[in-house]
Amino acid sequence: MLIADLIRRACRQYGRAPALIEGDRVVSFAEFDHLTDRLGNALLARGLRPGDRVAVLLPNGIDAVVVYYALAKAGLVRVPLNQRETSREHAFKIEDSQARALIHAGEPPVEPEISIEAGELPRLIDRGSAAPCAVTRDPDEPYRLAYTGGTTGTPKAVVLTNGTELAEITNFLVDLLPNLHPGSVMLHAAPITHGSGAFFLPHLLKGACNVVLPRFTPAAFLEAAERYRATTTFLVPTMISMLLEEPATADAKLPLERLCYGGAPIATSVLRRGLDTLGPVFTQLYGQAEAPLAITCLQPYEHTPERLTSAGKPYTLVEVEVRGEDGRSLGPGEVGEVLTRGPHTMRGYWRRPEETAKTIEADGWLHTGDIGRMDEQGYLYLLDRRNDMIISGGFNVYPREVEDVLLSHPAVVEAAVVGLPDEKWGERVAAVVVTRAPATPDELIEYCTGRLAGFKRPRMIEIWPELPKSAVGKSLRRAVRDRLITASQKVESRG
Questions:
Q1: Contact, 79 vs 97, CB < 8 A?
Q2: Tens of pLDDT along 290-346?
Q3: Order of strands, edge to edge, in the sheet holding 77-80?
Q4: Residue 152 in this model has a pLDDT that exceeds 60
Q5: 407-454 confidence digits (pLDDT tens)
Q6: Each residue of 1-43: pLDDT tens digit?
Q7: Which of 67, 79, 110, 243, CA to CA, is 20 to 30 A from 462?
Q8: Are strands 336-341 and 319-323 parallel, antiparallel or unpaired?
Q9: Residue-wise pLDDT tens digits, 368-421
Q10: How far apart are CA 467 and CA 414, in angstroms?
């Protein structure tokens, strides 16, 4: 069964019920089926063929969702672009994916063969045939291309198939959202191009409503959650921090049953504060572009004091192992690379067979590049990205551990820890923080004394007004490191 078949069945089952809401605009299930049919047919009539890549650069909203699933019905491969990225990044992805078409709002970064501006969509839909748009493709053919965050280099396009998408939906419905029903409401406050978008189909297929915010602000989130009685949402840790800094949050009466979070590590101090303020609704999701949000999850009832730093247990249909440098499967407590296997993983990297071969083993195990350990109960604990690990004086330092200590200081809002070249130690630990209250670097270094081993303590700390971030709000340690190195080189050249 294809995604398009599931959409059509759900839309016929739930008919006039609201499927999508954006502000005052409400789209029923039947209307959603109609819009996606007509747009899918119109796109094929423009000369696009099943399997063609179509880049989509639209803001959060109903139009973007309609485009996404019109592409699914027409057998076209979606290439979602995040509006927060630069034109240069957009142009790279359009060219790298060999997209034949771009559907966009505003000035296009490049001119592909077919360019469709957002204002044209209503006319295009009106001209499209109202007949069911149902293109049959092999379930193992590309369904969408998801670009990696590029936090460690040039972004790579991850090939996700119809089968991958079905596995993600199944994992969500079995383990994450087993009680979805027509009264459930998903509030999309984060970009639907990334994590939040994974929640659309599970809710649609169960007759639930999806409410889409054009952009996230704490005030808009609180108003929408109360107005629409939202039961589920997905936020990245930066958004959770912003929400908890909003004074109105403490008095809000939110109906949330699950506040799912992922996409980046969360500080334990932020999580504790969130639990105190919003209650036991937090659910952690661990995944990556190569295995979207579907490796492990930590359920609300598992957010106990001793497990707040855990990423949870594998989903029912997912295998997870921790392996050493020699490829040996490690036992409880031993630290190594996290690998995963199952129908939730990518088919490979787009046009990068050598990198695909390095990442996916012959028997299907996918190397995540994350360092972690598992306890005796099967809970996974992530320490850091393999490429971010600092080796100082022969000792391994995981930046996340140092960041957690800095974030526990009451003045610190954000922290990024990196390794800088050092003649004596190989690398020395350095940190950049964003503060909410006055604090000095010396004070913060002293704060780490007694909380971290000597080789883990930052040798220098700088206070910046903000940290460089990816389009999905993840701190870019590589950019922090580059800026610190550049600054030190300028100082040395002046000396």
A1: yes
A2: 999 999 999 999 999 999 999 999 999 999 999 999 999 999 999 999 999 999 999
A3: 114-117, 101-104, 53-57, 77-80, 142-147, 157-161, 348-349
A4: no
A5: 999 999 999 999 998 877 878 999 999 999 999 999 999 999 989 888
A6: 899 999 999 999 999 999 999 999 999 999 999 999 999 999 9
A7: 243
A8: antiparallel
A9: 999 999 999 999 999 888 778 888 877 778 888 899 899 999 999 999 999 998
A10: 8
414, 433 in Cβ contact below 8 A?
A: yes
Q: Could you give the angle at which helices 3-14 and 29-45 cross, rounded to 10 degrees?
A: 140
CA nearest neighbour of 284 among 379, 397, 376, 375 = 379
Give residues with Cβ within 8 angstroms of 309, minimum separation 6: 268, 381, 404
Q: Which of 118, 143, 23 is nearest to 66 (CA)?
A: 118
In angstroms, the CA 383 to CA 381 distance is 6
Amino acid letter at 40? Answer: G
417 close to 363: Cβ distance less than 8 angstroms:
no
Secondary element (H or E) of residue 219: helix 218-227
Helices assigned H by DSSP within 228-352: 237-245, 268-278
* Rounded Cα–Cα distance for residues 45 and 41 (Å): 6
Residue 150: the pLDDT is 58
Q: How far apart are alpha carbons 399 and 406 in whole angstroms?
A: 11
**Pairing state between β 157-161 and 142-147:** antiparallel
What integer pLDDT is reported at residue 453 of this predicted model?
Answer: 85
pLDDT at 194: 87
Question: Rounded to whole angstroms, how far apart are CA atoms 95 and 147?
Answer: 13
CA distance 281 to 258: 5
CA distances from 34 to 128, 135, 259 (A): 10, 16, 31
Nearest in space to 128 (alpha carbons), one of 136, 137, 138, 116: 116
Helix, strand, coil fractions of the chain, as percent rounded to 5: 35, 25, 35
d(CA 18, CA 228): 12
* 444 SS3 class: helix
Give start and end residues of each alpha helix (H) in 328-440: 353-359, 399-407
CA distance 255 to 231: 6
Alpha-carbon distance of 74 to 78, in angstroms, equals 11
Task: Provide the β-strand partners of residue 417.
Answer: 431
Cα(400)–Cα(418) distance, integer angstroms: 10
The predicted structure's pLDDT at residue 308: 94
Q: Which of 209, 212, 230, 289 is nearest to 17 (CA)?
A: 209
pTM attached to this predicted model: 0.85
